[in-house]
Amino acid sequence: MVRKKGKPLRKPWMRTAILALGLLVLPGQAMAAKIVVDAGHGGRDPGAIGVNGLQEKTVNLDISRKLRDLLIQRGYEVTMTRDSDVYLTLKERVDFTKAQHADLFVSIHANSISSPGTRGAMVLYYDDAYPQSSYPASPEMRALTPQSRELATKVLNSLVQTAGLENRGIVPSAVYVVRMGNIPSILVETAFLSNPEDAALLASNQMRQIMAQGIASGIEAYLPPNIQFPDTRGHWAREAILRLNAQGVVEGVGKNFEPDRMLTRAEWMTLLGRIFDLPAAKPAGGACGDGSKDTVAGAVYRDGGCDAAQGAAAFRDVNAGHWAFADLDRAVKAGVLEGYPDGTLRPDQPVTRAEVAALFQRLAKLPLIELAPGSQRPFKDIPAGYWAEGEVAALKQAGWIDGVTAERFEPERSMTRAESAALIDRYIASRK
Ligand SMILES: [Zn+2]
């Protein structure tokens, strides 16, 4: 949706256009999912020492290299935090991972415990249902709990089945590398170096290869290598996003979609320009409206005023280098988008859900719904007399938009990219 590659497709619901597009390389085409493989310990930190003398850092690196090779064979892009016997702090591992813009983080370890009879595989992940107050997690990892838990489950199941290991379960954990990142993250404890049988398995090159295969298959079960927009995996709006992307209406940001990021005014204008015929440009010398454009609502919603004829270039915070300049210019000239009294257009500022609803109602020429005073309101948080109540009610009745819950619309909250995609998807479906 953000960076445009080539000319946007107009009238995307036209069947001929959709058929033709099937043959073209589309913006947002699937790119290989990227995995960070982290071999635990290294250098002056040997990790656990096995009952057979095996050092954990050596086992971890070998399984990690095998895992990397298998993942590359299966079509993934892979980077390793270390590919030699070097020491890295935990923070260095997480910082490295953040710089990779990867999709998953998988740390490889071998376990050790004082009781030699304990054996088997387990997978650690951060779970916000079991927080440890002295080890707070990053906000991203807190929100990614369901994804990390599912990744942990799939990798563990695949590992124990493939390698015939005892299943010790997935384990909520506050270890740094699964707690401080910003992508789904797990730490695999392959087997126990403190157990003679497990230590013998870990000493076997063949068994390490089998373990790597099990881990690779678990990763693939969670995230196939060529999934489109991997960050929409499991997202409620994924189907709508993929449909719109195939129709050329929305684009990703790099290979991701960033579904829960706030939609900016520029992004919204670009989308509207693709699905609606904007009104013809206002003639020069138009009136400057009623001078009350001091609200965000007024700034996106009122009919074109004195700014319109000059276009987007009239605003001091927009220049022709802005990625959406052409769409912004068209929207300003059409009177669909207005600036603020301080001479700014604020193209990168988020739009609220009420602003989106209001503008959409208008461009779709959907009749406003007049709500009689004292009548039942569709949403409890939109009071009588709210500036966009008729617009929100109209979109709700058309089935194009939902509340955040059955009773709440949250009109003043910024709209996310996923929410805007859902709205457009329903609108297009209703026109077929
Ligand atoms: Zn370890």
TrEMBL record:
Pfam families: Amidase_3, SLH. GO terms for cellular component: outer membrane-bounded periplasmic space. Residues 1-32 form the signal peptide. GO terms for biological process: peptidoglycan catabolic process. Keywords: Hydrolase, Signal. Residues 224-286, 311-374, 375-432 form the SLH domain. InterPro entries: MurNAc-LAA_cat, N-acetylmuramoyl_amidase_3, SLH_dom. It comes from the Bacteria. SUPFAM superfamilies: Zn-dependent exopeptidases (SSF53187). GO terms for molecular function: N-acetylmuramoyl-L-alanine amidase activity. This is N-acetylmuramoyl-L-alanine amidase AmiC. It comes from Paenibacillus naphthalenovorans. The lineage of its organism: Bacteria, Bacillati, Bacillota, Bacilli, Bacillales.
